[in-house]
Design a protein that fits this description.
alpha+beta, Endonuclease, Chain A, four-stranded mixed beta sheet
Length: 184
C-alpha cells in the first residue's frame, strides 16, 4: 500500500473488495502478514528475551552429532578447552587442531555472504544495533582464528547448517586433517 491509498483485493468469490486503510487485518493481509486467520504480531521484548536466553552456547545438536561421528571414527578430542582463545568446540591437542561449529545467525553467515544490505533485510527492528553486533561477532571470530593460527594451531570453522546437512563430509575432512592425510 503506498501513500495511504486503498486498493482492491480479490475475495474467494472472485469479486474485488476494497481494502480499508483503517482496518488492521485488511492492511496486514494486503502486506502479506496474515497467514490463514492469524495476523502476524511482532514478538514482545519479553518474548524475544526468553527465546534468546534459551539458545544454547554449547552442545548444540550439530556439535553433538559431529562429536559422536568423530568418536565413532576413532578420534579422541577435548571439548571447550578454556585455555585456548575462543574456547573451541572440539580440540585435538596433540595435533593442534581446533574446530568451531558456528551458528549461522550468531556468527553472521548472512552478513558475510550477503553483506550489510542482505542482512538488514532480515531484521524487523533495531537494525543498526544488530548489524553492529554481528560485525563485532564476525571480527571476533576472525581475531580468534588468526590468534590460534599464529600460535601454531590449525583452525577449522564450519557453519552449523553445513554440519547438519553434510555431517559425514565434515567429519571425514576433520579426520583427514587430524590424521595428516588431508591433500594440500
Amino acid at each position: 500500500m503506498t501513500g495511504g491509498s486503498s486498493h482492491c483485493e480479490c475475495s474467494l468469490s472472485g469479486r474485488a473488495k476494497p481494502v480499508s486503510a483503517n482496518n488492521d487485518v485488511d492492511r496486514h493481509r494486503a502486506l502479506g502478514l496474515v497467514t490463514g486467520k492469524r495476523t502476524y504480531r511482532p514478538k514482545s521484548v519479553a518474548e524475544i528475551r526468553r527465546n534468546m536466553s534459551a539458545i544454547r552456547s554449547s552442545d548444540s545438536k550439530a556439535e553433538t552429532a559431529l562429536r559422536k561421528r568423530l568418536h565413532s571414527m576413532g578420534l579422541r578430542y577435548r571439548k571447550y578447552v578454556s585455555g585456548l582463545e575462543g574456547r573451541p568446540d572440539i580440540v585435538f591437542p596433540t595435533q593442534r587442531v581446533a574446530v568451531f561449529v558456528d551458528g549461522d545467525y550468531w556468527h553472521g553467515r548472512l552478513l558475510q555472504e550477503r553483506g550489510v544490505k542482505g542482512f538488514r533485510r532480515t531484521l524487523t527492528r533495531n537494525s543498526e544495533y544488530w548489524t553492529e553486533k554481528m560485525r563485532r561477532n564476525v571480527a571476533r571470530d576472525k581475531f580468534v582464528s588468526l590468534t590460534l593460527g599464529n600460535e601454531g594451531w590449525t583452525v577449522l570453522r564450519y557453519w552449523e547448517s553445513d554440519v547438519k546437512t553434510n555431517l559425514n563430509t565434515v567429519a571425514d575432512e576433520i579426520a583427514d586433517i587430524v590424521w595428516g592425510t588431508f591433500p594440500e
